Amino acid sequence: MLTCLVSIAKAQAPADTAPKPALTEAQVSTVLNQLKELESQILQMRGSNLASVMAKLRAGMASDQAAMSLYLECDKIVNSERKEVDKAEARKRQDAIERNMERNNKGGGAGNEEGDFGFAIRLGLQYILLTIEAHEAKDEDFKKMGPKLQEYIQAVVAAAPKLKGRAQGHLGNALTDRNPIVEAFNLNRFLNREKWSPRPADIGSMYTLTLIPLALENDELESLPTLWDARINAEGVFRKESMFAPEFELWTQNELPALRWQRATYLYEKGPSPINAMADMLKLIKENPGHADAPKWVQELRQMVNSSSPEQKSANIEPASGT
Phi first, then psi: what are they for 292, rounded to 5°? Predict the structure, then answer.
């Protein structure tokens, strides 16, 4: 059959003027049947290979030590074996990584400015697995990913004291090629999904890209204020535990009010009660008159109030025909 197709292709005119090849019904049927068989084989092999990789990732999640062992194994594959590095140089690199890991993990990581690297690797594995699941999920199954993502967020918040310095940096890059685990298993193609955050340490993006839009899609408007509160509270707790006190104070003064304004404007547009959202805006301005964005907030709220006034609404009503 393939020989037949090649012969047909050779008989055609040059590509820029060639008509589409004319196949007989028998040829069409034969090709489609072969494609169906190949598709089945590809899906089976792909599923088997992916299941094998995911099993290794889950094994790495068994403990911090297991996670670090998997990291070292993958680093060796990526940076030594595939690049045919001299064995002495490869051993030197592995020793340096092990020393750094040991130094980072002394004292459990909580009191270490570099955090707990082994724990960060394990948390990164959890998000990799969750992202692969989201990538493979059909639309209806994806709509049910919310509770699993919220469970992960809770784990990140609880782990905040361990996620500092190098540990937090690793978690932030866990889905990129900077993580040898991703590169060793060629996972890039499985780590992208619309409405899914590629940043495992960015709590805000998980809410704004996934959890809040899912609530909107599922017509759960009443849950939107609660989700926004959960997003802001989780981010606040995480930053308080992972930042130095002066940094967190600046975040509280500058970024937190901006987040609250973002919440209020979103709920004004899409939430269950625009009136409550406007009340939240007014309260926020009163509590933060010195904020850099306060003048802009006043202007935005004034426009909302004016557009909602009875006079404005009546002015927007078209006069009846014949009057």
Answer: -60, -30
